[in-house]
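2024-03-11 09:14:02 INFO worker-7 job=invfold-0412 stage=load source=structure_tokens
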């Protein structure tokens, strides 16, 4: 077989051997800057979603109207952040009414009845969930958290649901010389815990999203697509400084990912939702 016809699978076998031979940092440097062949790809619409936290204020005022508006924009998948006073069954009926599907959710596990969370997940229909936030001041606390996360995620896995961790910026800043994101990754099983990378926060934490993707290759199964303005503030997707085409092209290899639009404090949440949707649907990379 000629070099030009070398398959991506073979390339990754070669990359894996390089990791073993020369260490992660050296192998990752070349992999992270790879340009995976042809351009002109687009995000499949079934992989495009929105984190409903973006629209939380609108949901408090008009839950049904806001869900309908998201469907009118074109969304068919959403990531949940609570059910706004409705039971899981009631919220599922609303999603069905507006032809929306919950593909994932932010669900806190610490101190919660994990079995009850799993039952709600089955009713709502999502097959991916993530812990939205954790923050500790010592490595011992982070390790203890990772142990609890792994145990909860194992229960979700046995129920057919992948449970992961969603980052902010502080997980990429060292505590006593070790980054909390590395504690989480190295003290949990890849079989149990996937990673949901919030790309704004990865950048804000001083890390390179592409290098971080390959550092934990195979575990990053969801992206929060949140843009960063010139001033460092949140921005609507496509209006800020993150080069989405390059980022998505360079992280195309690997497991199928969800691309989830988010903005933590939008002035006009529905406009933010539409801007993000239209940008990602039109994006070629």
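2024-03-11 09:14:09 INFO worker-7 stage=emit residues=285
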């Amino acid at each position: 077989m000629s070099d030009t016809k070398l398959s991506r699978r073979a390339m990754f076998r070669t990359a894996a051997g390089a990791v073993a031979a020369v260490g992660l940092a050296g192998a990752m440097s070349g992999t992270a800057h790879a340009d995976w062949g042809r351009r002109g790809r687009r995000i499949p619409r079934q992989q495009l979603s929105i984190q409903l936290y973006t629209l939380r204020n609108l949901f408090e005022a008009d839950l049904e109207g806001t869900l309908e508006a998201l469907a009118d924009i074109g969304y068919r998948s959403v990531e949940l952040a609570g059910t706004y006073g409705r039971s899981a069954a009631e919220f599922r009926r609303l999603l069905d009414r507006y032809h929306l599907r919950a593909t994932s959710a932010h669900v806190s596990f610490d101190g919660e009845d994990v079995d009850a969370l799993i039952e709600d997940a089955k009713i709502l229909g999502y097959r991916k969930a993530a812990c939205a936030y954790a923050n500790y001041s010592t490595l011992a606390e982070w390790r203890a958290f990772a142990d609890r996360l792994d145990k909860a995620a194992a229960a979700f896995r046995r129920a057919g649901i992948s449970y992961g961790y969603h980052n902010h910026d502080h997980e990429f800043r060292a505590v006593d010389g070790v980054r909390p994101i590395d504690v989480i990754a190295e003290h949990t099983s890849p079989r149990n815990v996937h990673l949901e990378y919030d790309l704004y926060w990865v950048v804000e934490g001083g890390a390179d999203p592409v290098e971080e993707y390959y550092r934990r290759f195979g575990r990053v199964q969801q992206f929060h697509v949140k843009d960063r303005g010139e001033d460092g503030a949140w921005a609507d997707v496509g209006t800020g400084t993150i080069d989405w085409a390059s980022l998505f092209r360079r992280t195309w290899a690997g497991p199928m990912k969800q691309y989830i639009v988010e903005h933590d404090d939008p002035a006009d949440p529905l406009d933010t939702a539409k801007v993000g949707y239209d940008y990602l649907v039109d994006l070629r990379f």
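2024-03-11 09:14:09 INFO worker-7 stage=report msg="The two ends are 28 Å apart (CA to CA)."
2024-03-11 09:14:10 INFO worker-7 job finished
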